[in-house]
Amino acid sequence: MSLTFDFVQPQPEPAADRVTLFADVILPLPLPKLYTYRVPFELNDQVVIGGRVIVQFGAKKTLSCIVAAVHETPPANYQAKYILEFIDDAPVVTQPQLKLFRWMADYYLCTLGEVINAALPAALKLSSESRVQLHPAFEAETNPYPLSEQEKKIVEALSTGEEGKSMTFTEVGDLLGIASFHKYIKSLMQKDVVFLFEHLSDKYSPKVVKKVRLAHHYVAEAALEQLFTQLASKAKQLDVLMRYLQRVPVYQNEHANHKGMEKAALTSAPHLSPSAVNTLIKNGVLEQFDVIVSRFPMEDDEAANMHFTLSEAQQEAHDDIMRQFQEKDIVLLHGVTGAGKTEIYINLIQQALEGGGQVLYLLPEIALTAQIVTRLMRVFGSRLGVYHSKFSDNERVEVWNGVLSGRFQVVVGVRSSVFLPFDNLALLIVDEEHESSYKQYDPAPRYNAREVALMMANFQGAKTLLGSATPSVETYYQTRTGRYGLVLLTKRFGEAGLPEIELVDTRKSREQKTMLNHFTPELMQEMERKLAAKEQVILFQNRRGYAPFINCLDCGWIPKCKNCAVSLSYHKHAHELRCHYCGYHDRMPVECPACGSRNIKTVGFGTEKLEDDLKIMLPAASVQRMDLDTTRAKNSYQQIISDFEKQTTNVLVGTQMVTKGLDFANVSLVGIINADSIIHYPDFRAHERAFQMFVQVSGRAGRKGKKGKVIIQTGDPQQVIFDKVIRNDYLEFYEYEILQRREHGYPPFMRVIRLTVKHVDPVAAERAAIMLTQELVDRLGREAVLGPEAPYIFRIRNFYLQEITIKLSREHTVLRSAKTDILESINLVRDHKDFKQARIAADVDPM
């Protein structure tokens, strides 16, 4: 049968004392309004704001959504459908979250549904295509919970056929022959019989640890002595058994033997034979078994609650922060790279927890999360949760529920952590607050996690600490106006001093023909010197891939992306051409398709090319690369960082990822390969980004007492910005930059909103943009509206782009009124018969 939802029987008219309730729900769709559904009378007591319900939307589609409000007013323009099922009897989205989500939708010119869609992990968003799978640990014989007939049908269907079989919600409804089946799935989930996932690629895979234990009949002393006699001539097996008995006190604690030990601890031990371990298992001496463990294991009490002493400078900064928190809600900690800001953060977190509050510690990159989590886990143990996009959906749900239940009092994570269900925040830390990684570019909401964090703290009465060695111009301006507090930390931690910075002229080296591939002789000699001294090197190149493009030297042909107005980059490892905007890829041609010539060469260089060159030029060194291509796998960040920390890697080549707060004790040299490409970018923030990047990557050198050195390769050593970088003079840089911003009307003096019109037809895109511009000019004035114009990359994913830039006063009333005018203008264009297919994206505070 086909699953439909016309099953609701006509309800009798409610008695006079009955109350008919309606619920406004947030559907995870880009809809401008909330939809109102009727609450079945018998479920009146179950409806909770922030809980999930199942509703029918459209003819056949079913979705889970969030209850935003409950009232007694029916909708005026349509007949309210009944809510089909209640998933939760307690909120999964808290009241403070709902308030924040409403603010985000309003501020970032998007819908509440788009915010909810971005906020909730996929496993909390169910639809008619959600899938059900048996829990890998479920065994019918040992299941302690009774199952209803309907539940048994579902389990039997999932148990039949191939392992890991799954069914859609629609298929479950067909199987049971009823429409109101969600309660059975919910019941099976609560009994740990099934799991849910949204796509086949998200299928649940529990973390399983293989363990071994001594077979029960050998635990008795006499049997064990007999076993020793049997193994007397089998030294390798005896060694394994002895190691097991050393680790597991069988005689003192029989329960310890029942728990056993990880098999890997035996098979990976340097002096033990893996085959001997397997022989003991085969002969029944050891028993092998699997244990499903949490992805966030509880730490031993001894491992947590570590204490450390702040240096005098750190203590002064800490005390100053606490003093300023008495008067201001937001404080900027402006500390030089390597000053020890993390220790101050940890101390503040401990104080917040002692007061009974929650803490969110935001970081801009997953790479930083991997390194800092180890330090934080030693202090906070099982109270610490970790949240970022490399986690599976099931892991993210585990953290979400952990925050709701109070298990995780501290969360460290990247920008999406601002969506977590905190309701008692005491402290919010935004480390490296200047980073553009806090900005979400696509899809909506195009939010900046730093700004959302500030509003989140405001709503919950929490204090916010922003930290950076190179604060954003906007943030530092707020300290000058007195809105934010300012605390300085001007000395590096311990004996470390700031690195020596040397500019090397690549133009001169090329003229003298002394360049070694893309390295000046000065940088190569310094690398060889540092590696000979057993020290490590970081090289920064702000472009991934092997080469930005290839071309035919005979006819000039350059391969372009078929979807975007960009050339294809060459990736040698995959031996393919790849678009960095849409992901399109093609094989590397042997001959030019235009003229047939085989004279095809790569032009320019990226991190992959540098890695290849270094492996040839420095054969004794271990070279590793950290960029988007090498960190796609879940644990790849952690592995690369771990290898570098253990010094199994000597040279780390990377993109912006290597500039952001990483702390390596043995790095004494940093090389910036092509500084000019960063400075000469067509954007009003180009100089700010360049200064931040150069100072941040320089800060990776000489952090633990060693004198660090930085070599910057540039074709224009006279650039004004280099002098400020060499002297590490942020204040002078800020004064210069703020004058430019004031003169040309850019943030922090004006609010910028960028509208992008997209259409598959370039003419239609231009016409729609012209119409939108005219509507905006009529409402906001010509001086506030710039454009439209095609951006530098005018086609992406087969959509032609036109951009309109709006500059507005920062006054709240003006901004709110202007946003209403912008939305009205956008809707007018969208409703025009010629532009139904046009897409218009609003980006508030673009980076």
TrEMBL record:
It catalyses: Couples ATP hydrolysis with the unwinding of duplex DNA by translocating in the 3'-5' direction; ATP + H2O = ADP + phosphate + H(+). Binds 2 zinc ions per subunit. Its cofactor is Zn(2+). GO terms for molecular function: 3'-5' DNA helicase activity; ATP binding; ATP hydrolysis activity; DNA binding; zinc ion binding. It holds the Pfam family PriA_C. One of its GO terms (cellular component) is primosome complex. Gene3D superfamilies: P-loop containing nucleotide triphosphate hydrolases, PriA, 3(prime) DNA-binding domain. Residues 584-754 form the Helicase C-terminal domain. Coiled coil: none annotated. Its EC number is 5.6.2.4. Zn(2+) 1 binds at C552, C555, C592, C595. Zn(2+) 2 binds at C561, C564, C579, C582. Component of the replication restart primosome. HAMAP family: PriA (MF_00983). Belongs to the helicase family. PriA subfamily. This is Replication restart protein PriA. It comes from Hymenobacter wooponensis. The lineage of its organism: Bacteria, Pseudomonadati, Bacteroidota, Cytophagia, Cytophagales.
